[in-house]
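Problem 3 from the worked examples.
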Amino acid sequence: MANHGMIVGLDVGTNTVKVLVADVRDKQVNVIAVGRAVSHGVKRGVVVDIDAAANDIRAALAQVTEQTNQTVTEVIASIPATAIQMKAVKGTVAVHDSQHISYADVAAAVEQAVNIPLGQDQAIIDLTPQEFEVDDLTGVVDPNDMVGTHLTLKGIAYSGPRQLVTNLQAAIEKAGLRLRDMVLAPLAYSQTIPSDAEQEFGTVLLDMGAGQTTATIVHNHQIKFISTFTAGGANITKDISTVLNISTKEAENLKLDAGVASPEFANPTNQLTINPVGQEAMRISEVELAEIIGARVQQIVAKLGERLDAVSAFQLPGGMIVAGGSAALKNTAEVLKKEYGVNVKLFMPNEIGLRHPAYVGAWTVVNYAARQTQVALIVKQALYGLPLSFANTQGIPAAGQNKRPAWDNLKTSLTNGIGQSQPDEQLSPGYSGEPEQPRSSTPRRSIGQRVSAWFKELFN
């Protein structure tokens, strides 16, 4: 994989599948096509029906194929932050050629760094290098062609349930595509959405999806904290459907057309017509709808607020940036600003046809891939066995000449994972303490009454 030419980003979400095609030259992204399909095989961001997900991917791809008259053969997929754990890792190797460090030495250091104990059904999903050390020289960004006898990689490894990767990979392959790369969604968000100053001084990123809501703290250009709560826009739709006794489709349309994030922003004079199952059409006020929506919004905001406040996230000068399809709900930014007491801004791509928070996932994947440095790509090759080709590199096979086919390394690590995955409602903490040391080579009724009763059920 190289970060130029045609790059296709894939975001398989709980409600929709988005495909974005871009032409990348000199790290500049030019979006040329976008496709979207309703998602049927995904729950809380995780593929649970491979056949259904594959069909949805094909449907979205058909749209971009029609727009570009080109056949897409490979994609870069976004991985949701479900039960993700962060761990500081360190790998040291003796340099093969003491006169010059090569990218082969970097790859060896990566393999050593991620050779750590993992729980059953867990796998290393992504890895970001923080710095390299060449002998006693610290703070090295790219050690290629430097002189030294030992190379050390210090980085952050992101582990999570194997199913995050294996099921998504199976659906992509069943759709007739090759998986070119995978990117953990918070990583893509953290390096593409905030400005350089916001990444440096500290910012909270809130990804409001359909199946879950994820909070990420970026500070000093690094992710410091990730936490996911398993409720999002799909839960709001289900709440409306349950309380008002209407179909899910009507509930979704009602939410999109007239929904607001809190009753205080609703217009009491605005009357809405609904069609309850088995009853005649009736009218409710916008305030009644907002009470249903606001209850769930408050639950999400409160749960994540407790976790963010525990790590002093609201003291960061960058405030909060909110994105994701559910962020399009009217007055969401105002609710967050009031509850958290920080500056909140909504982010969406500027490109024509993409000006909606729902497209941020696919947009960030493409932009993240376009900005990757050469050493970052080598790290990915070592982690996943990706077929990369670079000019003027030493010891790295050209594309198609890897010792093992693409993804064999990943499949092996996924198959051999050991331990229990963490429930995705638990906190995914930032790393702390010393880097994990490598292990040995051993393997491892009325509207008012319904609303009242439903509130009690929700919060009990």
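Problem 4, a separate protein:
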Amino acid sequence: MTAPAESQALLLRLLDPANRPDPYPVYRQILASGPMHLPENNLHVLSRFADCDEALRHPDSCSDRLKSTAAQRAIAAGEQPRPFGTPGFLFLDPPDHTRLRKLVSKAFSPKVVRALEPDITDLVDALLDKVADADEFDAVADLAYPLPVAVICRLLGVPIADEPQFSSASTLLAQGLDPFATFTGQPAQDFGERIEAGLWLRGYLRELLERRRAHPGDDLMSALIAVEESGDQLTEDEIVATCNLLLIAGHETTVNLIANAILAMLRHREQWTALGADPGRAPAIIEETLRYDPPVQLVGRVAGADMTIGQARITKGDIMMLLLAAAHRDPAVAERPDEFDPGRASIRHLAFGHGPHFCLGAPLARMEAAVALSAVTARFPAARLAAEPPYKPHVTLRGVARLDVAV
């Protein structure tokens, strides 16, 4: 096991913006180092595929951060560990997680997702029509971003006209998922801005909720209000927290999936040409992108009891940071792990998680990506990368800020 000082130095390199365009050499070093333990931070960092997989599946692996030693220490010091109030169900454990996820899952059932495909196809076609006569377009601003935003707004009942208001807030909150405090023991510099953005967004959702009470629609927020008013164990705070979670998670990750796939194919032009000629290749492109350059690079869990994951003995209350981006390139599960090869015999990844927290929106994200990628490669067969893309500041939800494509 790597010494704590050496481990922390490697982890700080992950936080360094200079490594955002290509963090994979750092992940490779961490993977080679094996499990890391930083006792002063009550932190274990796992990077091997088998260890991350086991930690996600382990019955004592918790998502509620209040169960961590660090959170309990903060509470004892008089700090407020949940400044936004009730968290989204992604950060809860059973029975609350089970209850809330069950209520929301109907909106993401296979039947509902399949019914959305014609609308998604029309949205993609309309977006590509707008840039059809241009010499160049930004694959993020012109396709990867507006598509998931439009879909999640429609599902939740959030007016798409309000999107500019909440997009900057959700971007700040997405950056709040970065493990700055976990790795360093210190709050991030923009912590105050994130608190302000989070409170604003919840206030916005409360106002929208009141409008939906007065004028219900055919959307998830209206459906959750109906459940609340029937007395089925759902509070207003839980509705706001759930919609807040879905609004942020429902578009940021899918934006990155679509953009990362476009970038990988433009760097491997044979894949762009092949998908343009055969839309049936889209699922393999998507799964390999999720392995090779995942939108969610890492996730955290808390040990709900003393446990052993691989070689790591983990004390109850310790945080486990699972480096999925490193695990996906573990030579134990992927031959030629650093190559983008959608034709590989077996594509294994943990991009949507495992166990009770498996991503609720996985079928929808896969469908949106399949429609978008098939359409853009068919529409622009001669496309090429116009410039190396700049990256967003996020570590956890990694993706390009813009992606200029010459057509």
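Solution to problem 4. The first strand starts at residue 36 and ends at 38. The chain has a mean pLDDT of 91.
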